[in-house]
């Protein structure tokens, strides 16, 4: 039986049935009722005179999706730890570029994968470039303490992530946050999808409650991730950058408790499902849905699962391909160092992206041999290599060489 949104119940059965369904859900033993209240949206306006507590019903769908997410994380972790470090680092770099481009595209922020890759590869020594903060913070997921423990930390992360990217006219004009109302306007429909008229005092109060919700271990962690994403985007504490900051916070929470691959596929999946994602937010704030986030949480879980499944399929294909190529490489009977040299480049080729190939200096470190020896191997196997960049030199194995290895008579 379909679990209907309250708004749908209203349109089918009328107001009296809506109220009884609302009270039944609100007071159910399987409901997580929060102390965070929203003012719903109706007729493109935020109703400041109406307050609903946010709540989530623990449906069978939510339970099954939570289990699927956790099982996928186990599969991803096993695959990750069973692969060579270079293969996984190359794969994570590829995911990172896609994720960064996607979180920008979702907000109609113009960027290219090339410029994001340049920052990721730390080229030209530029440290104050546009998107530098965005790249750095995603790159450092799990590698440094960026804890959001108090309200001031939201502004700190905002500055680290987006300080170079937000126009001065759209910077916060309060002590930490915006002071005037803000919203999301859909130009194609010619209407406001969301409005929030809170001032800075209300924003501070709401974020304090959000922090307590994050720490509430009575509610499952995955539900806290999904529900808090809605809460943060509902609040819209800044004039610009809310979407990118909100998705970064989701990625951080996914990374902290699940795995890096799941974290680095969220924005990419959202960008592929823009309408589904946007409609989920719009429905969650709707006057007739009365603060219920059950369907929103389900959709968030759907997006996380889709990203996981896509990554798992990609990784499994890469693992099979790598095995075949290594078997082909063994048939060439190369000296050990040359075999290792080509094996690392194969890992980078299969798992990574042309935009973020391993440089010769990094290759030298990985192989733990002299740069002179690496240069000699580059010269010897030059017919198999394409020079992608110089200073530092970056090479990629030619497709013809890969195809040649695959064509060898290798025992399956």
UniProtKB/TrEMBL annotation:
It comes from the Bacteria. GO terms for molecular function: ATP binding. The keyword Nucleotide-binding applies. InterPro entries: Fido, Fido-like_dom_sf, Fido_containing. It holds the Pfam family Fic. Keywords: ATP-binding, Nucleotide-binding. ATP binds at residues 240-247. Signal peptide: none annotated. The active site is at 236. PROSITE patterns: FIDO. This is Uncharacterized protein.
